[in-house]
């Protein structure tokens, strides 16, 4: 137990918790994420001319077909280096015409590389995704040049780079590295996989989409920020039932959805392993009136979040390549910041590696409500998979966006001298190496 107790957290008011101890294997993987590799990947994706979802599928050098075949071949190269453990496939489906952005039925393909978990009793699945399609100013223009370097070759490159590194290692849970199609036409690739996952009963513990994660300069505002990354997460789950809504209202849990808990987890773990990084938790599902590939997963009831650069440059997004009045437009690879993409890639890797190595989350977590008291007693059951050496009880004030304190305990019931009226609590399992599970928000129990 001494190894766990050594993982004490230092807290500064208003700043997320950090740890002085890092897992050496995770740290090594984090440092392997290469800005040079990411630049090569982004430039290769940009070289296909356009990756519009409805562009050419027969050419070997241009269009969506050439792009997806190359992505698949890259994943297969990493699979060979991993001894075949990384399973690579097209996720093929027919998207019916929608009368808007899909003019006629189209055969579309996500590219998936699956790294199976090593624990047969661990059925958790984690998905990391970027969309590989691109667009010009006219969303239905399938022929004009649309390099899509930041939107979203940057996110696709992160999926590829992490597959290269992580496929050489073993994790208890399964990780799927995804290059999604059809995002610009209506989130169609992600929607297909989300529905398929739901229908087949996949236990998706969390889904991350990296979309627009390669720019550090904000147009119009003249802001440059290479430290900050936004994490968007929904508050009230899209699939919440009437009974769940009533419970949420009675305990004040509108800011403690699984997506919000995961975003807090992301901030803590990412800032633990990646220096000069500020994870900004944005408490809405996505940007104002906009959406991304995590949205279909949220709508199917899965925990899903979006990673996006802090200040978007709208001269680069959804723009024909041109120069007007001395101002350059277009999402070209020379405008991407590859050291920043590296930082976001390292953030993704740290979070995925830590949670995929950790035990699964505690079960039936509750706060005892049989007596009126100014203390708080929590109880729970052991995780379904993994070896939990102990548990952390997390606590924060009701106005705080982050967990402020973590109490280590070795039992499955514990009483704290803090009132449940004045604080929020969570519980997570932790193994002997300090890998923490997802955080569970407790329910009232008698």
Automatic annotation (TrEMBL):
Keywords: Hydrolase, Metalloprotease, Protease, Secreted
Major location category of this protein: secreted
Molecular function GO terms recorded: metalloexopeptidase activity
Residue ranges constituting the Fibronectin type-III domain according to the UniProt record: 358-446
GO process annotations (BP): proteolysis
Entry GO terms, CC: extracellular region
Protein's UniProt keywords contain Protease: yes
Localization, UniProt: Secreted
InterPro entries, per the entry: FN3_dom (IPR003961), FN3_sf (IPR036116), Ig-like_fold (IPR013783), M28_fam (IPR045175), Peptidase_M28 (IPR007484)
Keyword Secreted included in the entry's annotation: yes
Entry-linked Pfam families: Peptidase_M28
The name this protein goes by in its record: M20/M25/M40 family metallo-hydrolase
Organism: Pedobacter aquae
